[in-house]
Design a protein that fits this description.
Elements: E1 30-38, E2 47-50, E3 52-53, E4 56-59, H1 66-77, E5 83-86, E6 94-96, H2 97-102
Parallel strand pairs: 4-6
Antiparallel strand pairs: 1-2, 1-5, 3-4
């Protein structure tokens, strides 16, 4: 009797998360703290307490960066209760907003990126 080896076609979710390997120290940069928000990837148990991309806290160098303020407004509109906070490494792994943009805006569970905010 033969064995049929069929490829798994049950998901379109990218299984490998993007990581910021720039080595940039983001301590003292600014991020957006939010109420807990589950990862959009099906079956993922990660719950974010900040605006994240691929489970990385997104950081900006200035607290009044227009892109930070735009993302805070989007978070407000969807009920995440955003607050600008100074990033500390204890908040979890992070990436620069600009590194995230340069990488194509990867988001866990969303093939090809996510938000269309500037």
């Amino acid at each position: 009797m033969g064995v049929i080896d069929a490829p798994d076609q049950s998901t379109d979710v990218e299984e490998h998360l993007w990581t910021d390997d720039s080595g940039e120290d983001l301590e003292g940069w600014y991020c957006i703290a939010t109420d807990p928000w589950p990862c959009p990837a099906e079956g993922c148990g990660f719950v974010a307490n900040h605006i994240t991309a691929a489970h990385l806290v997104i950081c900006w160098p200035e607290m009044d960066d227009p892109n930070l303020l735009t993302h805070a407004q989007i978070a407000k509109e969807v009920g995440r209760n955003p607050r600008v906070a100074e990033y500390q490494t204890g908040m979890g792994p992070a990436c620069s907003y600009y590194q995230w943009i340069a990488a194509g805006r990867p988001v866990h569970g969303v093939r090809g990126g996510g938000t269309k905010a500037p």
